[in-house]
Specification:
Length: about 425
């Protein structure tokens, strides 16, 4: 199976599927269809007849239950689904990916062949310690690898093929979903939960084996706009009102101990991440993130009190604050159907990885899908350093993702007989 995983992953990462946040269409880039269409053909080639792709580049497929009539599980196993995204991050080029394959990794730093300045350092990549003897795939140093999330795509495709090849493994209906534009936050936008028709789903889009995710932060955006008045600086005395200065004072008062660069784990953060403007208008975009949704109200109060302090110092500047609601911690939705989490835990243990729940300090497609009524925790892929030229993946660990998917199908079947 290892060679099949390598072949698939290499085939998929060589297709450029970078998404584009500047585009307003879906998919944001047409090249995402290149991989999506390939997956449709490969699924058909495996003999799956229920496969479709829509004009927004969402692929849906279904492997029908093979539980025979008369079996004690017949008709009882809920449909479960597996979801991965085909796009890669806009942060780093995904064109002409030229992977480096390291067989039997012996430890130590990994120098990337096309740019010797880019090094995957062992002291910065603690999980490399766990990969001695593994097959590691990296880039050549000029692009990202796209293991995020083509490893997830590979895991799902390989697991489905294995289920087809091993009919003695009894499973219920297995749904497959591939989405575009996850990296620009739109992966769930046009996901048709009704058409997917699963009781429960798992995204395969995580990192090291054992790490599974049922919690994301809750998120809002905060936009602060300051309006000034522009005039030629040579004649500006007592007339010019510089909106940039008001925003600068606001940023100076933002809490340093509640920033992404000073927090970790479950600690909330307020993050000024984008600023644009000129004398007459300046806009500051801020992320509010907290695992407790109520915490977002506190973050709003913090920003309101900062604006209230700064406003009197700039009486001629009009300052506005706007809050836009984003996504919510998916734990609230997942706990309504806790067996899907228990089964995942069980499946991890059965394939020999020590599971642990790890909070995600951002959002996933799973948080959006969970809110849309499809509970969707997240599973590891064995990849690391996403979105960068130092991205790498352990094929041995990716094999664990494949095994976990297959085991999940078994656990759902076994448990439905008991219940
Ligand atoms: Zn991803």
């Amino acid at each position: 199976m290892k060679q099949e995983i390598i072949d698939r992953l290499l085939r998929y990462v060589k297709i450029d599927t970078q998404s584009d946040p500047e585009s307003n269409s879906t998919p944001s880039t047409l090249k995402q269809f290149d991989l999506a269409n390939m997956l449709v053909n490969e699924l058909k080639g495996m003999g799956i007849s229920q496969v479709s792709i829509d004009d927004k580049c969402y692929v849906y497929a279904s492997l029908p239950s093979n539980i025979p009539v008369g079996h004690s599980a017949y008709g009882k196993v809920p449909a479960i689904g597996f979801v991965a995204h085909v796009d890669t991050s806009p942060d780093t080029s995904g064109a002409n990916v030229n992977p480096q394959i390291i067989e039997n990794y012996t430890g130590g730093d990994i120098v990337l062949p096309a740019d010797n300045n880019i090094i995957i350092k062992m002291d910065e990549n603690k999980s490399l310690q766990r990969c001695i003897g593994h097959t590691i795939i990296t880039t050549d140093g000029t692009t990202l690898l796209g293991s995020d999330d083509k490893s997830g795509v590979t895991a799902i495709m390989t697991a489905i093929k294995s289920l087809i090849d091993n009919p003695q493994i009894l499973h219920g209906d297995i749904r497959i979903g591939f989405t575009p534009d996850e990296e620009i936050g739109r992966g769930a936008n046009y996901f048709n939960v009704e058409k997917f028709n699963a009781s429960y789903a798992y995204t395969i889009d995580g990192e090291m084996p054992g790490e599974i995710n049922k919690e994301t932060v809750s998120a809002n955006a905060c936009i602060v706009r300051a309006y000034g008045r522009d005039i030629h600086p040579g004649y500006a005395k007592d007339i010019m009102v510089n909106s940039i200065r008001a925003i600068a004072d606001i940023i100076a008062l933002m809490p340093r101990d509640m920033a992404p660069e000073t927090t970790e784990g479950y600690e909330p953060y307020i993050h000024p991440h984008k600023i644009s403007g000129s004398v007459d208008k300046t806009e500051l975009q801020i992320l509010f993130r907290d695992f407790k949704t109520e915490g977002l109200d506190k973050q709003k109060e913090i920003m309101e009190s900062i604006v209230a302090k700064v406003q009197p110092q700039h009486p001629k500047t009009k300052i506005e604050l706007e809050i836009v609601e984003y996504y919510r911690n998916m734990l609230n939705d997942l706990e309504k159907q806790p067996n899907g989490l228990d089964y995942l835990w069980e499946a991890c243990q059965r394939v020999g990885v020590e599971p642990f729940w790890s909070p995600i300090r951002g959002g996933t497609d799973g948080s959006r899908l969970s809110a849309m009524g499809l509970p969707t925790p997240n599973i590891y892929t064995g990849g690391q350093n996403f979105h960068s030229k130092t991205e790498w993946v352990s094929i041995d660990f990716l094999e664990k993702s494949v095994a976990t998917i297959i085991e999940l199908a078994k656990v759902w079947t076994e448990q439905s007989i008991k219940n």
